[in-house]
Amino acid sequence: MGLSNYGPKRLKQVQKKFAARGVPITTLQVQYSLLSTYPVTQLKLKDLCDELGIKLIAYSPLALGLLTGKYSEQGPLPKGIRGLLFRQILPGMRRRSPPQASLLACLQEVAQFRNKTMSQVAINWCICKGTIPIPGAKSVEQARENIGALGWQLNASEIAELDRAAANADKKMVQNIFQTK
Q1: CA torsion, ordered 146, 111, 71, 75, to nearest 10 deg
Q2: CB neighbours (10 Å) of residue 118?
Q3: pTM beyond cutoff 0.70
Q4: H or E element that contains 8
Q5: Rounded to an integer, what distance in angstroms lies between the CA atom of residue 92 and that of residue 47?
Q6: Phi–psi pair at 60, nearest 5 degrees
Q7: How many CA atoms does the CB half-sphere of 41 hold within 13 Å?
Q8: Torsion, CA 105, CA 110, CA 114, CA 115, rounded to 10
Q9: What CA–CA distances, in Å, run from 160 to 25, 30, 51, 155, 170?
Q10: How many Å apart are CA 71 and CA 69, to the nearest integer?
Q11: 3-state helix, strand, coil in the chain (%, to 5)
């Protein structure tokens, strides 16, 4: 069985009830990306999932496209609420607080070094963190690009650099309102 957006407290409760009935929980999906580390860093869900034998699935690993490098404050931005969200988050992804590189600059630097795209680096980061990312794709081209995140791994230094840049981003992705604690 798979669950979505359960926090550690609820996950432990539900896992006990299902285990008593012989039903294993095999996956838990949460919003997780370089702009949304809350489920893993604050809630410690990865540690709990590992302890319980549950695979953690990362949905929105590209943060609705913000981590692709496709968008900038100069536009064009998506219409509606997504565009409004992007206007709030993008400036904080580009700012630098020396000696730290901005998140987008760091992603771009690693992507260029690896001869990969920013999307592939962001997805591979999720894989290196022990999650199963499920990026969206609106075209065959995007699906092919996403596949390019497989078959290689970021090194520990690159992961640490991306972690620092993500931690220093002024704004984070809005958390899913259904995420429990």
Answers
A1: -140
A2: 21
A3: yes
A4: helix 8-20
A5: 29
A6: 60, 45
A7: 12
A8: -10
A9: 31, 22, 24, 9, 18
A10: 6
A11: 50, 10, 40
For residue 121, what are its two tokens? 């680096």
- Residue 102 is given by DSSP the state P
For residue 104, which of 76, 79, 74, 71 has the smallest C-alpha distance?
Answer: 71
Q: What CATH number is given for 2-167 in this structure?
A: 3.20.20.100
pLDDT the model gives residue 100: 63
CA distance 50 to 8: 12
Structure tokens, 74: 């100069």
- What does the pLDDT look like over 101-116, one tens digit per residue? 789 999 999 999 999 9
| Domain extents in the chain | 2-167
By the 8 A CB rule, do 108 and 118 touch?
Answer: yes
H helices of 38-117, where? 38-41, 45-52, 80-94, 103-114
Predicted confidence at residue 98, as pLDDT, reads 57
Q: What pLDDT does residue 180 have?
A: 77
Average pLDDT, 10 consecutive residues per value, the chain (181 residues): 95 96 97 94 95 97 94 86 90 66 91 98 98 96 97 98 91 79 79
